[in-house]
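Re: that chain you flagged

S.,

Sorry for the slow reply, it's been a week of failed gels. I finally had a moment to sit down with the sequence you sent. For the record, here it is as I used it:
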Amino acid sequence: MSLTTAPAAPARARPAAVGARGHRADIDGLRAVAVLLVAAYHVWFGRVSGGVDVFLMLTGFFITASLVRSATGGGLRYGAFLARLAARLVPTAAIVVLATLGGTWLLLSEIRWRDAPREAAAALLYHTNWHLALDSVDYLARDGDVSPFQHFWSLSVQGQFYLVWPVLVAAAVWAARRRGSDPRPLLAVALSAVFTLSLAYSVLMTRADQPWAYFDTGARMWELALGGLLALALTRIDLPRGPRVALGWAGLVSLVLCGALLQVSSVFPGYAALWPTLAAAAVVAAGPRGSALGVDQLLALRPLRYLGSISYALYLWHWPLLVFYLSVTGRDLATPLGGAAVIAVSVALAAATTPAADRLAALGRGGGRRAALKGTAVALACLLPVLLTAGAWFGYQSTERDRLSALAEEGGGYPGAEGDGTAADLPVYPPLAWAAEDAPRTYDDGCNQTTAAAEVIVCEYGSDAPVRTVALVGGSHAAHWFPALEDLALEHDWRVVNIVKGACLFTDAPQTYRGEPYTACAEWNRGVMAELDRLRPDTVFTTGTTTSLDTSAGYGEEQVVDGYVERWRELDGMGIGVVAVRDTPRFGFDVPGCLAGAAPEECTSAPGESMAEVSPLEGLDLPENVTVLDLTDRFCDTDVCRPVIGNVLVYWDSSHIGATFMRTLAPELERRWAAAEGW
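Prediction finished late last night. Pasting the structure tokens below so you have them in one place:
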């Protein structure tokens, strides 16, 4: 049977074939159900519903059908295909992104300003999912810092799918033609291979690193391949009326229940995502015109069909509006009325923007070169102004940051740890929007190992012929001392050897990360000891205690971690000295985020919230090679720890010290270290 020829009418009504152009009103209704689930779960429950997975499956369904029509008809033109898609998708996305940039500036904390232009560009250039994937494995990424562009991750997955799927379909059709056979079986084999390999990868990655897998295109491709397989198999589905009615209702009910019964955000994709995708596939396979009792009768109702027709724009609008609403109201979840207002405004905006976008998309329809050029022009005309706006905003922020940086270096208005309090006539440095950039440069240098890997990364700074070599070893709370150590190295002709891994303490005692055994940390620690035995530095600089916000004992659960002292004894046996610095206080909130909406006096923390009343290092039987340093008084007074000292921002998140402040602490670190060791 030719793909472009309709089959003879069967005894029972079947769903439209992959090559057919008939419109499925019930699928419009299915889209409406999916987008309403997405919006409702986001707005009122702060959860994920599985509705996005339905859109991924349907994308595979429709795109495969469209590509097969083109490839077996007049031929598949890759550029024209992408131009048509761009003309259809980019205008709405550009409108929403531009409005979201404006809303971010007007309604969100300035903490979000630095990232907003880059996130806008990622959204329009279809790689938001990889930005989020990288954040998901970044130990230092801010918690709770929700981006109004975050929902573009699924569109990015689809955009990457659009790039590769035409090549796959065209290759299968070409190979089938060479053999003089129907391309459908060969394409089914190719899609089955993609489905199987991607699903297997998804299951493995979800077990190994679920946050990464959630945004990984490779772990999601099977959902789109499932839609493609459904498009190919649709004409072969020949169920009696009763089973088809039951299949449709079972699919719809299962889809609605998915988000309620599964914690989608923490178990997807993997095999769990088969639930919503197969449920939606069942609805599609059940097809229309089966019975007056069929689910298609419900899904084809005019209100659902209309919502389905604007579902793309509705999906784009609902998330930034929700983020703005929650920011303005200071809530974590919407109220019933507030959430209803968010959804109502989203529907209104979607209804307004969809017709305008459709008129622009019409310019890119058709298969000729002229239509392709028009489609490309439409996409670029919408894309470029928004990208230029985002770039201009980012450039302005960068210029302002550089101006404040020069101001901080010129005068005595920014003493940091050498000063006290704040001056009302001077802005805090670094600017709050750029606080996250104030981490030690070792992170940008790739010198701090991530939580996932176990390889020991060694980076050396300072003199090539040092009079003293200091190895900085430990987790991120050891890492934030690097700027002060680097300043001392430059002044005294030292070398600093950076050996750091996120969330990994310098001990052989068992550790956990995100509730799981931290095996990469244990392996890394073994490698560190071997590296120190090879390097033989004069001193290992590390944290001597670990602070915590666990106040179950009546004060901060600061402690000398199991294995610390034993490790220091090992170093003593190797002839290596140890400087054990008391850990720094932790705030129970994002400090720059607090300062963006409140005065410094309102963003303080008590020492006892994370620290013991007396340093746990006092009174311990320590090896003779250990020097203990305690600079807590430079971060806290007797009863308060301040977020800004000497007009310099102390923390760039909730617990990590900024590089700028740490450099101002270098002179005091030198004085106390020299006094303790007599140099």
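What I noticed first: The first helix runs from residue 25 to 45.

Talk soon,
D.
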